[in-house]
Amino acid sequence: MASIISSVNVNGIRAATGKTGKGMLEWLVVTEADIICLQETRATDEQTRKALAPVLDAGWFLAHAEPGAKGRAGVGILSRRAPSRVRIGFGSTEFDGAGRYVEADFDDLTVASVYVHTGEADTPMQDEKYRFLGELGAHMKAQTRDFVICGDWNVAHTELDIKNWKGNVKNAGFLPGERAWIDEMLAAGYVDVVRQLHPGVPGPYSWWSYRGRAFDNDAGWRIDYHLARGAIAGRAKQAVVERAPEYALRWSDHAPVTVQYR
Fold this sequence. Notes:
Oligomer: single chain
EC number: 3.1.11.2
Keywords: Hydrolase, Magnesium, Manganese, Metal-binding
Cofactor: Mg(2+); Mn(2+)
Strand order of the largest sheet: 3-4-2-1-12-11
Family: Belongs to the DNA repair enzymes AP/ExoA family.
Structural class: alpha+beta
Order of helices and strands: EHHEHHEEEEEHEHEHEEE
GO molecular function: double-stranded DNA 3'-5' DNA exonuclease activity; metal ion binding
């Protein structure tokens, strides 16, 4: 079973892999992760496999749910060994074709990659976000295997998870209903393993706007989570956000969130 799982919103797989000398492909060469959950590939399956061709040729396997709308969403799971089974979507009539969810089985472990769209308070986009979370939550509660679901949730759970929380209390990503959904998942037995390993501290943030000096000032959001349930949740022993050493070396506006499990 995998011991190191990483998750990252790549902000466009072709852009992330196209940054020569400082891009995603260079990171993939040195990462120790056994499984990597990807979000926002924003590319067809063919385009994604072409962008990742060097690592796929080197032996990595890819399970990918391509976007339902051009240039939006798209999620994948890269793994060093082939999963025994892959499922795209979670049985939703509305969302299974959107490219927001894929899961794969590795022995007695299921790993899922999810992308929850940003939403916008008091708009149909936010209503859609709540519908997605509702259906996803039901699927998560039904799991009986060891289960790790990683992704860009576009929700900061508590005031510790967003630098400027006071300025965002009425904005999507920090709305009471969104935060309550994470409470509900934790009450259902899921563990926010990064927070468990970094209790009571701001962050560690995983997303910083490209605007202004958000990255340099570490004015970020922690919206990329590993939620785990089952025996594996108690085996998380180390969690790091692989923040680029400087702005110029970023290949996404998110940083990989990597957890080592015993």
